[in-house]
Amino acid sequence: MWAKQHVDPSDITTKVNDYYKRGQLGPLTVPELKFFLVAKKAKVGGKKEDLIQRVVDLLG
Fold it and tell me: Which residues form the SAP domain (predicted)?
């Protein structure tokens, strides 16, 4: 069974912002994208492409 690891929200936010600036959100995992979207109070449903588009909409 997998144990949940403690994740610092600022680490995920920084990581997502860095990947966004490089134009490469694809390598991010779905849990990372969802974590970021929850922090921004955005919807987290849908496929990975949907999550990436929401991140782009929020940061763009």
Answer: 28-58
Pairwise CA distance, residues 28 & 39, whole Å: 16
Place of tokens 């990581």: 15
> Does the reported pTM lie above 0.70?
yes
- The tokens for 16 are 């997502």
Cα–Cα distance, 43 to 46 (Å, whole number): 9
- Choose among 42, 46, 47, 34: nearest CA to 58: 42
Residue-wise pLDDT for 14-59, tens only, equals: 999 999 999 999 999 999 999 999 999 999 999 999 999 999 999 9
